[in-house]
Amino acid sequence: MATLTCTRVAIFTICAVLLQVVGLFLFVLGFFPTKPALSGVSGPESYNFPTCNSTDGHVEELRRPPPEQLKALYEGLSGIPSSFDRLVLMVVDGLPAEFVLGKSQMPPGKSMKEAMPFTQSLLSNGKAIGYHAKAEPPTVTMPRLKAIVSGAIGGFLDVAFNFNTQKFLDDNLLGQFDSIGWKMVMHGDETWLKMFPGLFARQDGVSSFFVKDTVEVDHNVSRHLDTELRAKDWNLLILHYLGLDHVGHIGGRHSVLMAPKLNEMDEIIRTIYTTAILQESAGKSTLLVVVSDHGMTDGGNHGGSSYEETDSLALFVGLHSKIQDYTSATQNAASQVDIAPTLAILFGVPIPKNSVGVLIPETLSCLADEQQLRAIELNSWQLVRLLLAELPHLFCGNSPSKDVVYEQALMTTRCNHSNEEKLYCFFLKAVASHEIWKHEKLSSSTSSYVNDLHNVTAEYYNFSRASAQWLSRRVTDKPLALLAVGISIMLISSVVLVGLLFLFSKQVGKIQSPDSRNFGSKWHLDEVFVLAAVLIHAVSLASSSMVEEEQYIWHFLTATLFFIFLRTSVWGQLAGASSNSCNGDRFFQILLTLSLLICGRILRGWYQGGVNWTHHPDISKWLEQMGPVSVQYLQVASMVLVTGLGLFTLHQIKTMKVFIVLVQASIFVTSICVLLNTMVFKDSMTGISTYSATSIAQAIYATLGVTFLGVTLTAPWLMPVSSYDIGKAMEHQFASSDHEVHYNYLLPCIRDISCLIGRTTVVCWCLLQLLLQHKIKAGPLLLLFVQLLICMKYFSIVGSIHKPWVKVAALYFLGMTGHFGLGNSNSLATMDVAGAYIGLSSHSTLLSGILLFIITYASPLLFLLSLVTYDPDEGVKSPLDLQSRAVRHYLQVKFGMPCLVPLALNSVVLTTFTIILLLMRNHLFVWSVFSPKYLYVCAATIGVYIGVITVAAISGEKNENEKVLKLGVSFRTSYMTTLSPSHKRWLEAVLEVLSFSSEQDISSFVRTDAEGI
Amino acid sequence: MSPPKELKIALDCFSSPLPKVFAVHFLCCFALAAAFQFAHVYYSSSLVSDPVKTLLVLWIAECPIVLLGYGFLRQDPDSCSYWKAVGRGIIGIPAGALLSASGAIILGAPVGLQYLTKTLNWSFLLSLFTVVPSATVFGPSWRDWQHLFGNLKITGNVDHMVSLPAHGAVIGAWFGAWPMPLDWERPWQEWPICVSYGAITGYLLGVIASLIFALVFQRSKHTKSE
Question: Transmembrane stretches, by residue range (chain A) (predicted)?
């Protein structure tokens, strides 16, 4: 069998990882559509009946008339006079429609009604009409704004670009308004400025990324209101208020700040209504449209697809329509994408090309009946153009003459074909009845004329609704070749990784105990279970509810794994009842495993998580009910315990006392800072981030960074081989062989370095998390830290009962379980955005992205970083073991394990879920469940890469350091044995003195020796 | 001290011939079925409609059968009287229930007052499947327990009878928990209904397996002795 050398393993691993990245990139590129179905912009041609050769758009585009002419042209072509001259688009970020319109036939709650008295009076007087405008997931701001202005449902990956907003190039309302010469003004979220740079005549952008600020962010918009309402030069005024979303992020739906914020919004609506709509000057009429981009969950987050998040608002104020009562003004459902075509018709511009919206009928009631028919006809034509691009075979087949088709269509009273054919049938019916109506228009009487008119309109609506539904859920043609290549590359890479792990583990097993246990051939229960668990978990992701409730699966599997460990401890090691471990030791093992399991159970109960049972009681909800004081007590207690435990574990390291005291001091100072930050700044309900809070957070980042880097970079080089021990060894004439020196002095030394670096890293990471995470998560963080310590202790006690890869896998399992224990889920809504701005004095997309990643992947990264302390030498029982070349070789490649296992396990999940995603591409939940999970899986992959690179870097450094140490020791021992007894005694005394000031570089130490003699 | 292994096996075969094994298993399974029927007829309840009552009926019906049946199979008939064996089985009931309940809760069973009776009744039933038979048969002999559950070195009919159904019940319960997070919204997905179904199924499979083992063992015994 070919042996695996260090370099060979490294090269194979790096190749496999690179392959994985390439495969993932290809798959993502192919799977997530980024381009719209149709390119270009709707122009005058959109007022013609759609034809099969759809190249006309580009020809027309070249010679566009100037704006004023174009406006007149549009009006002439459409036959619908634009009903309004000016539009005020007020976007209230994150306002659930429920707050204004109520839910399921019920008016909103009393407190909500009282918070918005003016809006409610508008609704009950028939001056306004509101809609529950269903938003599509992902419910984050930028994709939703795009949907509002373009009527198109963008690619899913928009969520990734939400942090890095780019210019919006697709056909949209603002572009259309620009082409007819409108003057536009925008105040509010700077996302608009990034999407439409240079489009606005006047603008004031505010950043949506300082979530803690709920007051200034809205004041910065409202301060322009009076001037703008007095100015008559604009046609479109966009006001985007972010404060309500920020209130939600800080305090949730039922925050005490919510009612005042709603009241503020109400006042703004009143101001706009009284100054712009009531005082119309010279026939200039204004329409106010209040929309929200998305709703929010009870906790105030958004991103997912639950009713609370998708329930956004569309409120039309100032339509000259007759709305009878409050119920008909509030109990309406629409889609968020319907806003774009409706506004396009009302303001006399073509409907944007990729819009999948349908006109909202009630808003058109100010138009004459025939104009309404024309409007829905235009809407249908626009949708037909989209269908033509998707289904050319259906609409452009070898059709017989028009009349025959129409007659056939009229004969069929009901369209019950397959989905796509049904759309065609609907369209033919609508067009045919329209044709007939046109013929009969002149001859027939008024009553049947109106009746028929309504029928034709209804037919068109029928078609539009059906096709809009089909289009928004369409199966876009995926480039299957690209996907297949991507998946097969990923498959190859995971086969390589798993195979490498298998070979490596076999080799390590052989070396570790060549005779006692027949490694490799016989599988133990824990190993079988780890393999089964990885497979079960990967396969379970094929079920949408298992994805939604993944926290149960991870907890169940991890708890079972530790039950199996417990079983091993209880029934003693293998054959002998208790051959090589005394009873007390075994009892301690059992105790450790049990406490680990109990910690895990509490962690499971902290957040209910998931989707279906998320409302069930859990510890976090209970704590929130207990009030902020008890939460703070818990937080402080967790911080004190984490710091105390961290300092204690560092204290346990025996060598390098001075250096360790330094590290401890810096950790202590940092934790005091974190404590201060919590006590002083976090408890203010308003959550206004002050200058000093920011600077304290920055100071904490700095000290943590310096501590971590300082320890990892300097510790290996400062750690001396205890000179006292060397002296002793010399006395006993013990250091005769190189291996014994290695065993007696180097191994403990290297172990101490590992412990020091690993524990410092872990404690620093925990302190960082305590600063960043939501305060209720301090408890789970403590539990995770305790779990980690217990697990480490357990592994150091049990020795080689479990194979090395099982140990690493167990840590990986704990990390994934903890990920859900910290309240994360597979919905984008649970990402804690509020924490991502702590300590940032200016807006930086990159930095807040990194902070968000650190917060979300706190637990997996904690356990990955803890692998730095992974001790492969515990299998080495005596110095004789080290004599065999195989063992030394094994020590060279010892750090392969903590790198290979997470990579292999993660690659299995990644590859399986990629295949599942491809298979599920037509599933109803592909965008709401599977795709968000895929983003999480990809991010977890990045997390594994980061963790593994850190571990590998530190291990590499230690390896180099070990070589230097070995050199120094062997030099010194060989040197000392040649000395005369008197010299030896003298040197011993020197060494003893030196051992107190142990911060000595090994090379300088050797030099001292030489000079001494 | 326990007798040498060869002797023990011989004693096992002598003291528990196939009919006895068959009878005890049959009685246990019969009691289960009868209890189901009883609950259905008299309380008109099933596991789904009223899990607490059904589980109560199940374990109360199963309890005397298991105790009395396995009492006949006690490991050390000379030093331990029949009623002593039954007595240690009775002690095993709450101990096993405590173990089962805490195991289930650690694995994620819901905690709360409304689940208390469900968890308790379920854990008594599981205790009767797992701990009680071996407590009755082996008593406090730690070595036997270790052989049975730790090393899985099973020799003889009684070992099979105790070990296989017990392992079956635990593994069945583990698999029974898997449908719980699915969003099918069926009443049987509630704790502890599907877990009970899983445990019972696993138990029955274990019984069947142990009977097969007993038959095979008997035949090989015969061929050897001939």
Answer: 9-32, 480-504, 525-546, 552-575, 587-607, 632-651, 658-679, 699-719, 753-772, 778-796, 808-826, 846-870, 895-919, 934-956
Per-residue model confidence (pLDDT) at position A1008: 40
* Of A546, A552, A597, Cβ closest to residue B106: A597
Structure tokens at A407: 């007659």
Q: Does A575 sit within 8 Å of B177, measured CB to CB?
A: no
Q: Is A414 exposed, middle or buried (0-12, 13-18, 19+ CB in 10 A)?
A: exposed
B106 vs A572, A574, A598: nearest CB: A598
Chain A CB contacts of B182 under 8 Å are 543, 545-546
C-alpha distance from residue A622 to each of A616, B147, B182 (Å): 11, 45, 26
B114 touches chain A (CB under 8 A): no
Measured between CB atoms, does A572 come within 8 Å of chain B? yes
Strands of the sheet with A236-241, listed across from one edge? A202-206, A184-189, A236-241, A86-92, A286-291, A311-317, A128-134, A333-335
pLDDT at A57: 45
Quick one: residue A721, left, alpha or beta (phi over 0 = left, psi -120 to 50 = alpha)? beta
Least confidently predicted of A418-427, A696-705, B203-212: A418-427
| pLDDT tens digits along A599-621 | 999 999 999 888 888 888 899 99
Give how far A613 is from chain B: nearest CA, Å.
9
Task: Render pLDDT for A812-855 as a digit per residue (tens, 0 to 9).
Answer: 999 999 999 999 988 887 887 778 888 887 777 788 889 999 99
Whose structure tokens read 């001939």?
Answer: B226
What pLDDT, on a 0 to 100 scale, did the predictor assign at position A81? 82
C-alpha A216, offset from chain centre: 28
**Residues in B touching A559 (Cβ below 8 Å):** 106-108
Show residues of chain B in contact with A575, CB under 8 Å.
151
Q: What is the pLDDT of residues A926-957, one digit of tens each?
A: 777 888 899 999 999 999 999 999 888 887 77
User: What is the Cα–Cα distance from A855 to A983, expressed in whole angstroms?
Assistant: 59
CA dihedral A790, A793, A794, A798 (to 10 degrees): 180
Q: Which of A725, A496, A560 is nearest to A13 (CA)?
A: A496
Cβ–Cβ below 8 Å for B108 and A567: no
Please, which residues bridge with residue A133 across strands?
A312, A334
Going by pLDDT thresholds of 50, 70 and 90, the confidence category of residue B19 is confident
Question: What pLDDT is attached to residue B152?
Answer: 67
A92: helix, strand or coil: strand
Residue in chain A closest to B180 (alpha carbons) equals A552
Q: pLDDT band for position A728 (50/70/90)?
A: low
| Chain Cα centroid distance, residue A533 | 25
Tell whether A555 lies on the interface with B, counting CB pairs under 8 A: yes
Contact criterion met (CB < 8 Å) for A600 and B106: yes
Asked if residues A858 and A942 have their Cβ atoms less than 8 Å apart, the reply is no
pLDDT digits (tens, 9 = 90+) for B29-53: 999 999 999 998 888 888 888 899 9
For chain A, say whether B3 makes contact (Cβ under 8 Å). no
**Dist CA A255 CA A949 (whole Å):** 42
- Cβ distance of A572 and B143 shorter than 8 Å: no
Both structure tokens of B54: 């059904």
Structure tokens at A792: 């480490």
